[in-house]
TrEMBL record:
Gene3D superfamilies: 3.30.70.270, 3.40.50.2300. Residues 11-127 form the Response regulatory domain. It comes from the Bacteria. Signal peptide: none annotated. Keywords: Coiled coil, Nucleotidyltransferase, Phosphoprotein, Transferase. InterPro entries: CheY-like_superfamily, Diguanylate_Cyclase, GGDEF_dom, Nucleotide_cyclase, Rev_trsase/Diguanyl_cyclase, Sig_transdc_resp-reg_receiver. Its EC number is 2.7.7.65. This is diguanylate cyclase.
Length: 336
């Protein structure tokens, strides 16, 4: 008796050294609408399993040379992370035989001769289990993607689209470790918008937000290498993390940023420094060693930022070079 049901057809691998049994099973499964693969040995069954990845395996236990238990273990080893239902077929009916089959990687154990009704009932059950597992895998992947998106969003500043303070802390830790391994210099720059409160008071917070977005774009445009990173440190403060950048290169970055802001001419109606938006910044550069910490670099860059403000703002100060961008520009002019 063959049973037809609405579930999708399966690709079923039948492994049995007895031709009559194998042919009869294949014919019954074929009438039920399934695609059938046949093997008369454990080795051949394993090859078909690896080649076609069937939906289900009907596996005889007693076969010459290598038995069904060996075949089941080999099939399980060939599908890391996956799952293909395996049903053992055997004339052995002792509890120990069933236990041995399950331990070898089987999912069910049927005693020969198997009636078509029992066989198709088992196929339906395995099909349901397979569908449930596929759904669980799909849901797990959806959750993984959702968690990844949430993690990414938790590290992005919603106003500017730059990395936020939390993201910067993690990235700084990674770059310190990478620079320590490679022996390359690492530069951290902290900067903030000069007299930003006056800007907000003069033009309002909506325009203030637009100003911060404008500065963020300039910083992001300055990050031309994949490893360069711009972040919003908090309020009107920003950070640039520049791996493999020496002290002179950091000064070049800073001068380019100030020049870009001056050329952009985003007007500041109440600035005592210039008619446009300006930045003050602190720079620290080092080749990290075992004593280098994110907190230490941030503190040093913040101290340098304080010095830039003390020297008149609209400039970047470097502790390591003991000069600011204005002094460097004058020195370069003197060289000419």
């Amino acid at each position: 008796m063959s049973l037809h049901y609405q579930a999708a057809p399966l690709t079923i691998l039948v492994v049995d050294d007895q031709n009559a049994t194998r042919v009869a099973l294949a014919a019954d499964l074929d009438r039920a609408g399934h695609r059938v693969l046949e093997a008369d040995s454990a080795d051949w069954g394993l090859q078909l399993f690896e080649r076609y990845r069937p939906d289900l395996v009907l596996l005889d236990v007693e076969m010459p040379d290598k038995d069904g238990y060996w075949a089941a273990r080999a099939m399980r080893s060939a599908e890391p992370g996956g799952w293909t239902p395996i049903i053992f077929l055997s004339q052995r009916s002792q509890d120990a035989d069933v236990w041995k089959g399950i331990e070898a990687g089987g999912d069910d154990y049927l005693i020969k001769p198997v009636t078509p009704m029992i066989l198709h009932a088992k196929l339906r059950a395995m099909q349901r289990l397979s569908h449930m597992r596929q759904r669980l895998v799909a849901v797990s992947e959806e959750l993984r993607q959702a968690n990844a998106q949430l993690h990414e969003l938790s590290q992005v500043d919603p106003l500017t689209g730059l990395m936020n303070r939390r993201g910067l802390d993690g990235r700084l830790q990674q770059e310190i470790a990478a620079a320590r391994r490679s022996g390359q210099p690492l530069t951290l720059m902290l900067c903030d918008v000069d007299h930003f409160k006056r800007y907000n008071d003069a033009l309002g917070h909506v325009e203030g937000d637009q100003c911060l977005r404008h500065v963020a774009r300039q910083l992001k445009d300055l990050c031309r290498r994949p490893a360069d990173c711009a972040a919003r440190y908090g309020g009107e403060e920003f950070a640039l993390l520049l791996p493999n950048t020496p002290r002179s290169g950091a000064m070049t970055y800073a001068r380019a940023l100030l020049r870009t802001l001056a050329q952009g001419q985003l007007k500041h109606p109440d600035s005592p420094i210039a008619g446009h938006i300006t930045l003050s910044g602190g720079i620290t550069t080092c080749v990290p060693d075992e004593t280098t910490t994110p907190e230490g670099l941030l503190m040093r860059a913040d101290d340098a930022l304080y010095n830039a403000k003390a020297y008149g703002r609209n400039r970047f100060f470097s502790y390591e070079m003991q000069m600011d961008t204005d002094e460097q520009r004058q020195a370069l002019r003197g060289d000419r």
